[in-house]
Amino acid sequence: MGIPNSSVDGLKIGSTLNEMYEKLGTPWNKDGNYIGYLYKYNDKDIIINFASFNELYDVRFKEERVVNNNIITDILIIVMGGKDGK
Question: Tell me, what's the pLDDT at 20?
């Protein structure tokens, strides 16, 4: 589970994919339900994957609910590389 109320460039769980495309442009990769963007920062590769599934876990009610397939339901951030692969 992600950090509550966290966001990437103002995009957070519950934002639409249309908002994501408008803010970030063309993605680096699309794989199934995941849409990825690649950034380079201080000799590191930062991959941000946004996902859109049909269900979203609602922490307030501790249950999953069905959502529109245009809604961001998951954000995964991966930091790789740097000096000596660290």
Answer: 92
**What are the tens digits of pLDDT across the range 37-82?**
999 888 899 989 998 877 666 666 676 666 667 888 888 888 888 6
In SS3 terms, the chain reads as CCCCCCCECCECCCCEHHHHHHHHCCCCEEECCEEEEEEEECCEEEEEEEECCCEEEECCCCEEEECCCCECCEEEEEEEECHHHC
For 75, other C-beta atoms within 10 Å of its C-beta total 19
Angle formed at CA 55 by CA 10 and CA 25, multiple of 5 degrees = 35
Residues contacting residue 57 through CB under 8 Å, at least 6 positions apart = 1, 63, 64
Kindly give, in sequence order, each residue whose CB lies less than 8 Å from that of residue 43, ignoring residues fewer than 6 positions away.
Answer: 81, 82, 83
